[in-house]
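ok here's Metallophosphoesterase, seq below lol
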Amino acid sequence: MKSMFALKSLCICVNLSIALNTHAQVFTLPILPDTQEETCCKPEMFFSQVNWLAAKKDSLNIPMVLSVGDVVNYDNNANWETASTGYDVLDRANIPYAIAVGNHDTRAVGLWSGGAAPGNVNANVRLTDKFNAYFPTSRFKNQRGRWEAGKSDNAYYTFQAGGYNWLVITLEFCARSGPVNWAADVIPQFPNHNVIIVTPLSFKWRRQNQSKQWWLRRFKPSTNI
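and the structure came out like this:
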């Protein structure tokens, strides 16, 4: 089975060819890395990316677009308006997408600065009101469930491509044990799906020993990741 674990360093497009019986079915799964500089300072570059994806939807056989987080640079309405306008292009093209929430997509950063906002950064990084206001659950056409009601910070999605079923799970920045355990419980519900986990930062960040245990105990037993 094909599988992917999407981290922040992945680049734009992954072209997947899957042999199904005697026929090869090819599709392209675009992965948007950090778009924070584009939505902040170079919107024309961001718009060119999403317009290119919309134009190539059929020729590249794009079933879905994944974002690994840091959609915006600053947690202000101007940045979020640009991001929302760009994703409107995908909405109009009927291209579903899933977005993982990066630290810049939270109140952990300032309104006009990428530095830490006043207050407790560990608490602020869980405040995602603007993300969920500009991207309500209704915008995510392939979303099937979420860890918290009304919030897409940790959610799962399904799609079909290449003759196979796929499950995408997005996890928050430096995921807490709650979302990790929730995600691990979702996976067994989809034994016939290939699983892609999208997170804006490795579990190893500052919690290497704990995160290694999470991986060994909660994710490694699943054979379809």
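fwiw Confidence is low (pLDDT under 50) at residues 1-12, 18-22. kinda neat tbh
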